[in-house]
Amino acid sequence: MGIHPDRVLLSESIRTSTYNPVIAEIKVRSPSKGDLLRDRDPLDILRAYERAGAVGISYITEKDRFGGDIRVFKEICDESSLPVLRKDFITDKREIEETAELGASAILLIARMLGERTTEFVDTALEEGLDTLVEIHNPEDLTFLEDARTTLLGINNRDIEKLEMDNGDVSVTERMVSKIKRRDIQIVSESGIKNLEDVERALKVSDAILVGTAFMEEKDPEEITRSFVMGRRENNA
């Protein structure tokens, strides 16, 4: 089925952004922080992110550790005009087809998990009309990208094997960027971006940032998201 015909791809939304390109994540739970939703409606948070100027929406569909719900993901895809990224530990091509059918614009593919299958999973996703955000964390992960036609490359500032028990640091993005030879990929700095200083550092070396926990911890996710998008605190505007 592919994505909705009127849905802009995530890579295009990043490319055409006139402000800081921020992908805002609706995150239900974190292994390190616990409950992040706190009885709030995910669709209310979605609308806050839209008003704040995010270039895209991310949602983690993994249920056991992150509290995701595929039905909520579909609601987000149906309700938002922004490109929606599915984050999960994708290991089956049927999950790619499902993601497209649900109306998503992009899918996360973790190079360390897929290994030599990364290229074929990217090809399958592209055939389904999805942008692919292939995630790496260390130089060894780069070996799985040589033939992959991915549109987006995510640098996770946290080690996924530690399930967010490390805080993450933008220095991971700064170190990894110098090792990436390809210039035909948009780079997204993911996780561990906590404040405006982190935003500035990350965007000096990447094309976009993906932020979840820092937004979800706030009582007013719209205000902090807008501050990241605009590059300043609201009271300094």
TrEMBL record:
<keyword id="KW-0028">Amino-acid biosynthesis</keyword>
<keyword id="KW-0210">Decarboxylase</keyword>
<dbReference type="InterPro" id="IPR001468">
    <property type="entry name" value="Indole-3-GlycerolPSynthase_CS"/>
</dbReference>
<feature type="domain" description="Indole-3-glycerol phosphate synthase">
    <location>
        <begin position="10"/>
        <end position="227"/>
    </location>
</feature>
<dbReference type="GO" id="GO:0004640">
    <property type="term" value="F:phosphoribosylanthranilate isomerase activity"/>
</dbReference>
<keyword id="KW-0822">Tryptophan biosynthesis</keyword>
<dbReference type="Pfam" id="PF00218">
    <property type="entry name" value="IGPS"/>
</dbReference>
<comment type="similarity">
    <text>Belongs to the TrpC family.</text>
</comment>
<dbReference type="InterPro" id="IPR011060">
    <property type="entry name" value="RibuloseP-bd_barrel"/>
</dbReference>
<dbReference type="InterPro" id="IPR045186">
    <property type="entry name" value="Indole-3-glycerol_P_synth"/>
</dbReference>
<comment type="pathway">
    <text>Amino-acid biosynthesis; L-tryptophan biosynthesis; L-tryptophan from chorismate: step 4/5.</text>
</comment>
<keyword id="KW-0057">Aromatic amino acid biosynthesis</keyword>
<dbReference type="GO" id="GO:0004425">
    <property type="term" value="F:indole-3-glycerol-phosphate synthase activity"/>
</dbReference>
<dbReference type="GO" id="GO:0000162">
    <property type="term" value="P:L-tryptophan biosynthetic process"/>
</dbReference>
<dbReference type="InterPro" id="IPR013785">
    <property type="entry name" value="Aldolase_TIM"/>
</dbReference>
<protein>
    <recommendedName>
        <fullName>Indole-3-glycerol phosphate synthase</fullName>
        <ecNumber>4.1.1.48</ecNumber>
    </recommendedName>
</protein>
<dbReference type="InterPro" id="IPR013798">
    <property type="entry name" value="Indole-3-glycerol_P_synth_dom"/>
</dbReference>
<keyword id="KW-0456">Lyase</keyword>
